Amino acid sequence: MRRFPKRHLVAAGVLGVALVVSTFLPPTDTVEPKRQSQTVELEIKPEIQQLLPPVAEPITEEIIPQIDWHKERVVSGDNLSLIFQRAGLSDRILFEFMAGHPESNSLKRIHPGHELEFHIEDGRLMALRYRQDRLTSQLFKRESSDKFSYEREVLQPDTVLAYRQATINDSLFLSAQRAQMDADMIMELANIFGWDIDFGLDIRKGDHFKVLYEERFLDGEKIGNGNILAAEFTNQKQTFKAVRYEDSNGNTHYYTPEGKSMRKAFLRAPLDFRRISSNFNPRRLHPISKTIKPHRGTDYAASQGTPVWSSGDGKVIASSYSKSNGNYVVIQHGNNIQTKYLHLHKRHVKTGQRVKQKQQIGTVGSTGYSTAPHLHYEFLLDGVHRNPRTILEKLPKARSVADAELQRFYSATQPLLASLESYHQQILLTRTQQE
Fold it and tell me: Is residue 364 a contact partner of residue 348, using CB atoms and an 8 Å limit?
């Protein structure tokens, strides 16, 4: 007689087991072999049961349907009607969407480069996402036939420290670009030191700078630069240092390492300049009359339409036109200082208007006695023309860090200044090793 024994061992935790034994009845002459089974479970003591891991629930994976978004990039000349049409949506649907939530009015201020993403089902707008940039967007979802919900989405990028340095051999812009700095960062650097250095007149070959700043990444891809955290600029052998600091009230400014504000009462140069046509020169050959006339000021040559700023806070005491000066603006700063801006293409302020430092007051032009587009800028102290490049050292400065907050200032800024120097030393060491 043949036997067909079979044993099954089933694990049940670490210490407990359940033994399942199957037996088979021997065959007879008339009956086919028939299997019977018995299950024998071992009893597990309560104190051991507590040591066993819990029985896992069956794992079920939730399937989230993917939304198909139709994307449209805003181009010059676009409006919402044109964009909706390209997405296959009618003006009726556009009107329905705009009436569906008050925040939809923000889409009236779209600009080239912005993106609109549409989720459409059977010709019906189910959701719309408006992206102003890589980090900020607004999401509208349909809630009913005539209502949309609204949610503002803000992504947080990863921020890392970065460092750049350069020695100027030709111009600030070219040297900084070779150091892989973009135009926005170059202008920010010039703005930080713009109260101490006239980047149109003062820059010399051999000047150098170093910058510690933030780079921002999203999903491993660089999306732009953040703030300049610390910087140093050596101009004509004089070194200026600046560090970014946010005070206990949330106000952010740039200061010297000692806590003195980088901001002064007046800017060195009152415009976003590129080149200078003439320097301060009290004995200058006038370009039109060809006679020696005092040129009590500075000419900043720039393309027509370049914004002109007020160099300091004050009140407009003249905004007019004359045959020689063309369109001009005069601003009174306190009791004893005036600044004049001549040959403007357009004036953007009126007489009696109060202005802030770096507020646009006009644009560069060539009106009046002028041979080419430029800004003629004058600085008068007690009614006497003074060279703005030298007189500013004697003028008052903005408020420094309060004494009560100096310790907090040092704690926050000294590590940044140390990092700025550390990066510089690492580069010097690398160069030495390569040589």
Answer: no
Long-range contacts of 316-320 (CB under 8 A, 24+ apart): 316/349, 316/350, 316/351, 316/352, 316/353, 316/354, 316/355, 316/361, 317/351, 318/351, 319/347, 319/349, 319/350, 319/351, 319/353, 320/351
Can you point out the beta strands (E) in 335-411? 337-347, 354-355, 360-364, 374-381, 384-386
- Which two three-digit tokens encode residue 29? 């002459």
> What's the CA gap between 274 and 374, in Å, rounded?
11
- Which residues are paired to 127 by β-bridges? 119, 141
Per-residue model confidence (pLDDT) at position 287? 53
Dihedral angle, C-alpha 4, 5, 10, 14, nearest 10 °? -150
- Distance between first and last Cα of the chain: 93
Contacts 24+ apart (CB under 8 A), 122-130: 123/88, 123/89, 124/93, 125/89, 125/93, 125/96, 125/97, 127/67, 128/97, 129/69, 129/153, 130/106
Q: How confident is the model at residue 299 (pLDDT cuts 50, 70, 90)?
A: confident
pLDDT tens, position by position, 264-278: 888 888 887 555 544
Tell me the one-letter amino acid at 164.
R
Question: How remote is the C-alpha of 81 from its chain's centroid?
Answer: 30
Contact between 341 and 297 under an 8 Å Cβ cutoff? The reply is: no
Q: Specify the range with the lowest mean pLDDT, choosing from 65-69, 201-205, 342-346.
A: 65-69
Tell me how far apart the alpha carbons of residues 199 and 24 are, in angstroms, rounded to a whole number.
100
Residue 301: strand pairing partners:
374
User: What is the per-residue pLDDT across 370-380, written as a single tens digit (0 to 9) for each?
Assistant: 888 999 999 99
pLDDT tens string 59-113: 444 454 577 899 999 999 999 999 999 999 999 999 999 999 999 999 999 999 9
Residue range 351-362: mean pLDDT, rounded: 96
CA dihedral 64, 70, 75, 77 (to 10 degrees): -130
Confidence of residue 13 (pLDDT cuts 50, 70, 90): very low
Query: Tokens 């947080």, residue?
Result: 156
Where are the alpha helices (H) located in 6-68, listed in sequence order? 46-49
